Amino acid sequence: MKHENNETKKKSGRLRALIPTKRRLIQLYAALLFNANLKGFANGYIYRGPLKNICTPGLNCYSCPGASGACPLGSLQNALAASNKRAPYYVFGIILLYGILLGRWICGFLCPFGLIQDLLHKIKTPKLKKNRFTRVLSYLKYVILVLFVFYIPLVYVYAKNPATLPAFCKYICPAGTLEGAVGLLSNKGNSDLLSMLGPLFTWKFLLMIGILVAAVFIYRFFCRFLCPLGALYGLFNKIAICGIKLEKPKCTDCGLCVSKCKMDIREVGDHECINCGECISVCPTQAITWRGSKFFLPPNEIGESEADREAVAARNEKIKKRNRIIGIGVTAAMLALLGGVLIYYNFIDKAPVVETPPSEVETTDPTLPTNPSTPAPDAPKPGNSQGTLCYGADITLVNADGSFNVQNNRGKITVLNFWYLDCQSCKEELPHFDEIAKEYAESVSVVAICAYFDAEFVPDFVEENYPDYNILFGIDLPDEAYYSQMGGKGTYPMTVIVDENGVIVEKIHDKLSYNALKAAIETALAD
Amino acid sequence: MTKETAKKIRLIYGLVLSALLVCTGVCLIVACLSIYRSGDAPFTRESIGAWFSKIAVPVWLTVAAIVGGGVLSLVLPSDEPRLRGIRDGRAQLKSLRNRVDFAKFDDELTAKIHKERKYRRLLLIVTVGVGAVSALPLVLHLFSPNSFTPALNESVIKTTVMALPFLFCTVIGLWGYYFLSAKSIERETALLKSAMIAGAMRKPEAEQAKNEKNTAHTVLAVRLVILGAAILLIVLGIFNGGMRDTLGKAIKICTECIGLG
Predict the structure, then answer these.
(1) Nearest CA to CA, how far is B94 from chain A (Å)?
(2) Domain span at residue A53?
(3) Which of A242, A265, A286 is the last residue of a domain?
(4) A318 and A452: one domain?
């Protein structure tokens, strides 16, 4: 009978193991909250609205179609890369705030990539246990932090040949490859981006596979050895407001907490601790608690007389009731927040895609429609891909009077180049466009259309940097409407070559060399 | 089913699944490399689809094995390993030091303890020395004006290669330091314990409590300062355009981050 009871208990224990823990639920909640733009997975666009100026606490690539906020690590590197223009106060402030409030509790509860590794580690294979060597290896992430996150971006800012290089994101980050690349490129609508894949993607894909497979065998492989964000937050772990606390007077140095923990901790709450709380249950003296948990625990009283004992029981019951109410309130608030965020991103905010109708254009060619929405027979249809009649829009010019519309430029080849101010690749190729414009002045018009986001800075920038250029500089429509209408998904630069009849002959989502651009122009002229 | 049988089944299953996982990882890597080497603009939906259909079998086998593992864990008796405490020598030594009153030790014991500490200090100096020497080529490279050229990939690869000797030497050095200093810590811990058994007085409880209270006040002060600094920096960042920069970068696809170049 006793044996049967034990077996029943074990079976129900195994079934209970299937129910997600509170920590797992919070991790799933956070992953959904930070990737609330679910429609991005369906339509292949990243969210481009104003809420992306808020950094999420964990590692979550902002090029993921679902990302609702900015990645703190990517933002840090870009802020450092722009530190010659302005001091990176904002991102430093955000990281300090997250660090002092939450420390590495973020790693244990809020990081989506940490969740992925936790789930992979659940796969039932033999596991590599931590040891002195892994403890030493855990310092590698600090080297990566100093070298790839701080030094390389900074050195390129102040180098003889400045460049914007978020080195960690570009060469190492697996979250970008998994969430950004795989997330974006798996959408059929982004097939034209596949042509941009090359050696960099191959390297990053290999690295991502290596890290994910390693995460199955080694607990939180990336977090322990490679993650510079964890390294940064770890510096705050001992003083963060949230997290695990070890009450030294109660601690007997039995070492069970260190044994239970799969991270390379030396003691609970040190810089390697991700504050997951798994050690709390194994401590025999209950020396490990959550910071601030005293508020929720009844005081350790017994009461000498019957009346005292009744009073203590009543107080404890009151505290339990209070805790229940707080728990329900917090859960309701969290669910309301998630619901509100999901509704906002997926139904209310229209930022990612602006569907403006094709503009009406005048034309002297009777075979081409005056209004592209009512095409004549055999005429190319309006669109934004090769062979279609290019959508027209009145682009305000900054280095000439008036505006420019591609459909009013028939009779000449038009090169539309979409760029933005902080885009290093865009600025590297602009001189090539200028050379082409000089060389083919009679037959080619080149218009460099800057993102509307940078509208107020473009005129001064162009006057200062490109005063004698032979190309026209313009500003996109509000919300980058023309760029979106031309099929732009958020990658810059984008170049569209339109022939004399206003038909698109080529669209390129990559930086162009002079030779490649010239070849494309020659092809358009030959046709 | 006995626990031994369950353990054997778990081991065999674990090894098979490990092999499948590694095989799947290798297949994915080979597929990606093959596509990359197949010519100009090699990544197309067709080429990716063709390659992934070739490696579909190991992938689906792995998925099936993972699901099977989930079912197995429900059927087999559970096997929770018994926890054995891992005492960190340093933490234990620190804890002991906080409890003993060194003024009550005799000269011989004090000399032995000092000897151990000197030994560990020497080990640390040697380790730091090894790290510093191995870091020299890297430091020279980092501060050389010609190291960071417009050829970004080559520069970063070269920097990583220059960092490898430093990393290798530091890892070996630190591992050796931890290994050797652990022995020294064990000896010092044994000395302190024997002193406590022999009657070395504990520090007064009140003094320990006072130290903890001072630490708590310091931590609170540091928290408030950092919190204030964080809020101030965020506000400054909003006004100086830093928040705008963050938004500007986040609303565009970071082609470098996702491997598009």
Answers:
(1) 11
(2) 19-242
(3) A242
(4) no
Name the residue among A75, A335, A216 with its Cα closest to residue A67. Answer: A75
Name the helix (H) or strand (E) containing A419.
strand A413-419
Rounded to a whole number of angstroms, the distance from the CA of A400 to the nearest CA of chain B is: 26
Q: Answer yes or no: do A341 and A388 share one domain.
A: no
Tokens of A520: 């494309």
How many angstroms away from the CA of B161 is the closest CA of chain A? 13
Q: Given an 8 Å threshold on Cβ–Cβ distance, is A206 in contact with B259?
A: no
Neighboring chain A residues of B248 at a CB cutoff of 8 Å? 420, 422, 453-454
Q: Which residues of B touch A258 (CB under 8 A)?
A: 85-88
CA distance A97 to A54: 12
Domain membership flag for residue A9: no
| Distances B129 to A318, B167, B204 between C-alpha atoms, Å | 61, 14, 40
The beta-carbon neighbor of A136 closest among B24, B171, B245 is B171
Nearest to A253 among B95, B232, B255 (CB): B95
CA distance A320 to chain B (A): 28
DSSP helix/strand/coil, A382: strand
CATH number of the domain encompassing residue A438? 3.40.30.10
Residue A310 in any domain: the answer is yes
Across the interface, do A205 and B32 touch by the CB < 8 Å criterion? yes
Together in a domain, A92 and A238: yes
In whole angstroms, give the CA distance from residue A393 to residue A211.
Answer: 46
Query: Taking a contact as any Cβ pair under 8 Å apart, which residues of chain B between 135 and 174 contact chain A?
Result: 142, 145, 148-150, 152-153, 156, 159, 163, 167, 170-171, 174
C-alpha to C-alpha distances, A286 to A247, A248, A279, A290, B96, nearest whole angstrom = 9, 11, 10, 11, 20
| Distance of alpha carbon A504 from alpha carbon A407, whole angstroms | 11
Tell me the Cα Rg of chain A: 29
Cβ atoms of A446 and A437 within 8 Å: the answer is: yes
Pairing, β A244-246 against β A382-383: unpaired
Is A139 contained in some domain?
yes
* A30 and A116 within one domain: yes
Flag whether residue B82 sits within 8 Å of chain A, measured between CB atoms: no
- Give me the average pLDDT of each 10-residue run along chain A (527 residues): 54 68 95 94 88 94 93 94 90 97 96 97 92 92 95 86 84 94 88 86 95 97 97 95 89 88 92 94 91 76 78 87 92 95 89 45 42 54 84 91 90 93 87 94 94 92 91 92 87 92 88 91 86
Q: Which residues of B touch A213 (CB under 8 A)?
A: 21-22, 24-25
Integer Rg of chain B from CA: 29
Q: How far apart are CA A148 and CA A158, in angstroms?
A: 16
Same domain for A435 and A477, yes or no, is yes
Residue with token string 């900074």: A154
Q: Considering CB atoms only, which of A96, A191, A195 is closest to B230?
A: A96
The answer to whether ipTM exceeds 0.95 is no
Q: Three-class SS of residue B160?
A: helix
